[in-house]
Design brief:
With 173 residues, the chain is α+β, with helices and mostly antiparallel strands. The protein has four helices and seven strands; from the N terminus they run E-H-H-E-E-E-H-E-H-E-E. A seven-stranded mixed β-sheet has the order 1-2-3-4-5-7-6, with helices on both faces. Belongs to the acetyltransferase family. RimJ subfamily.
């Protein structure tokens, strides 16, 4: 994993981010709701980056990309809904289908948690994983998350409401 690095999302990532999202769209949409067709265009990705960086500038988000040494994006990770007063944030990540099962999600989650503590002094992290996303559940548990509760009909995938699990990780975990 020496060839893997995690950096903050930037406008320079737009073309590679579009490729990553388009290539993995069918895979991602089996686990998370679709972002809609407009997102998967050059202007849609630029708008998304702008929104992420604006939230970052307001200490409400930490948007990260996971890259191979060549600059190829192979994953994303972020803290969102950052609440500095409460010391909490939600964590999310998505990994290129070709790179699953290689420890990239665990690496990304660990790095993102460390950044949350270092940059924002966060004490609580919240994550959501679908009941069927066993791999994501294992990554969360491996990073000290504990199951908090089941969230029935939490989101809609391909027109079907799905149940999710809410996980929490407190700084003393």
């Amino acid at each position: 994993m020496d060839d893997i690095h995690i950096t903050q999302l930037s406008y320079h990532d737009a073309g590679e981010l579009l490729r990553f999202e388009q290539q993995n769209r069918p895979w991602f949409e089996t686990f998370i709701p679709s972002r809609g067709g407009e997102f998967y265009t050059p202007s849609g990705v630029i708008q998304h980056i702008e929104e992420c960086l604006t939230l970052h500038d307001n200490d409400a988000m930490l948007p990260l990309v996971i890259k191979k040494g060549s600059g190829q994006i192979i994953g994303r990770a972020n803290l969102h809904s950052v609440d500095i007063e409460e010391g909490s944030a939600h964590i999310g990540y998505r990994i290129d289908k070709q790179w699953t099962g290689q420890g990239i999600a665990k690496l990304a989650a660990t790095h993102t948690l460390e950044q949350g503590e270092r940059l924002y002094q966060l004490r609580r992290y919240i994550a959501i994983a679908s009941i069927d996303n066993i791999a994501s559940q294992k990554v969360l548990i491996g990073n000290g998350f504990k199951k908090k509760r089941i969230r029935p009909s939490y989101t809609r995938l391909a027109g079907t409401l799905i149940d999710c699990i809410e996980y929490w990780r407190d700084s003393n975990s």
